């Protein structure tokens, strides 16, 4: 992740003679009022200087030295910011610091310096969270140094966070130091978390991912829908997911239809077999003890096949007829019987009356087989 940068001003005593002035000291340096608050100290070394020198070489426009940082204050007070000098070439001097070596003073500034109307130069620079100087912005003549540092170097007022590009930050910088603002850094961290991106993603990475997100919310023709309200859209999606989750079949509570159908078929077959066995046992028992007549066997089996409970109810109320499965004489023809083998005795006649059949039919059904 790109580090946010901050702006500070540094002051060094100057002379109008010569074209070289010290901008920044070598090593670590701080202000006596406790700044910087964003890091332990400001830092300047040869590696940092090499980057600053390369940036200065690539510039088309030289750096400006104004009066009392009016370049920073012009947006607030509306006053012009005339130049006191210009420079473009930087040079690193080991153990000493970073210098501007081609300073061109205006006649007015030169005379004011000679008259001691201005005695200090205050370069304005940006730095990262570790305190490393990242760029030289411009400089100013000032009489309000804040700290004796190395040699004649003085640190002056103002250390503020820049939240966009260097030019935008400088144009918007207030005259008074605002409270520390970590908006840029926090915003990037939150976006990286929100987009589920790896730690260390750069601003360019985040921007590319956001562009993909915008494209996914487009109207289908490559144009992002201006009316899309992302929080409302997310809430709608969340509600749809909740609805689908509520209607989702729980595999722990339900089985596939094919499995259920097969189990039901097996159960029906088992029930049919059990019912058939039960009906057969009921009919056989009823025939053996006289609760059913042989002529009723087919009817009883059909009833049991369709409604075994009703068959049980009928058989529970039917009275056994002893004459249908035994004789009163133990199989011996009674004395004085004149009716022959097919004669019906008194108990048989009673059965015929109870069942509503003729004595002839009863005699035929109960006669022994030839």
TrEMBL record:
Database matches in InterPro entries: Phage_Mu_Gp1
Top-level taxon: Bacteria
UniProt xrefs under Pfam families: Mu-like_Pro
Name used for this protein in its record: Mu-like prophage FluMu I protein
